[in-house]
Amino acid sequence: MQTFDFSGLDSLFLQLKSQGYEVVAPTVRDTAIVYDAVNTSSDLPVGWTDEQDAGRYRLKKRDDQAVFGYNVGPHSWKKYLLPPRMKLWEAQRDKKGFTMSDATPPPRKLALIGVRSCELHAMAIQDTVFIEGACVDPFYKAQRENLFIVAVQCGQAAKTCFCVSMNTGPKADFGYDLALTEVIDDTVHYFVAEAGSDAGAQVLSGLESKPSTETEKTVAEAIVARTVSKMGRTLDTQGIKSLLYENLEHPRWDDVAARCLTCGNCTAVCPTCFCTTVEEVTDLTGDHSEHWRSWDSCFTMDFSFIHGEGSVRSSNKSRYRQWMTHKFATWHDQFGSSGCVGCGRCITWCPPGIDITEEVKAIRENPV
Ligand code: SF4
Ligand code: SF4
Fold it and tell me: Which of 54, 98, 273, 342 fits as disulfide partner to 163, beta carbons 3.0 to 4.6 Å?
């Protein structure tokens, strides 16, 4: 492990850029912390934190200059691997018929800064879907192979976090090139860095740093241990798959359906949700056609539309139930893991504040 100070962040960015990486990181925009391209450490949310609860998100000034003193916001890294909207191919009419060409964009070399443990688990889940299954998504695979990941160990938990219940955090222990723990108090401000790959070790060796002392390592570990004890929410996952399968007609589904707006916010912010739709766009002459893929949601009527049948999930109840049982039950059958990493985004960004942990709890406490 190596220790460097605040100025080491800019050295890290410079070094990554010199290797051809575009640096993307948390930054403040539109009163939220989102992920976007940054140039220097001053573009990071230095001195900011967030307050989150069901249906509530607020930015607030911290009383220190912490760089990573907040939790996950409305964006997730999936927007780089599975872009919200992407042209896949296009066709042009010519004298012989038509010519088709691949329009998938080339992957970018991206350095992701500040990836949390739950987000590494979410990427691993999407890897199962897009790389490890029968159908490989070529763009996802190529983009995944062009990432340099700098993880950050969480120094705090939001009221909506429940990664401990899902065994997905808060300590990042796989899937990164570098992992940083930020240590800050009235007298010190430094980062304890650990390499998780050869590429990470090479970058770390190029930074002005010194071997971490035993005290610095102990302090860094204590920060993550403190975060474990501060989880905002818990979820009892014991037997959750059969619990949901056995309660498909529980009255709680009607209760939550009365509150759910079917807006799809939960699926948009969720780092594991992966459903998409495709559309054909032609020009006015009909000579040129494009095939676009964009995020979809199981909360829309069109999502379950079957020709000749219409939408097979026409009620709010059936759509919410589909979403939640997929996360905690059918995902296990389909991919061998939970579809939820406990990041809490769907709780924070749900306009009426529907809390997935509360919905499971209500069914568990009073099963039919
Ligand atoms: S659960 Fe909340 S965020 Fe999801 S569709 Fe319903 S109202 Fe929207
Ligand atoms: S279901 Fe909610 S808590 Fe779970 S990974 Fe998705 S957004 Fe995060």
Answer: 342
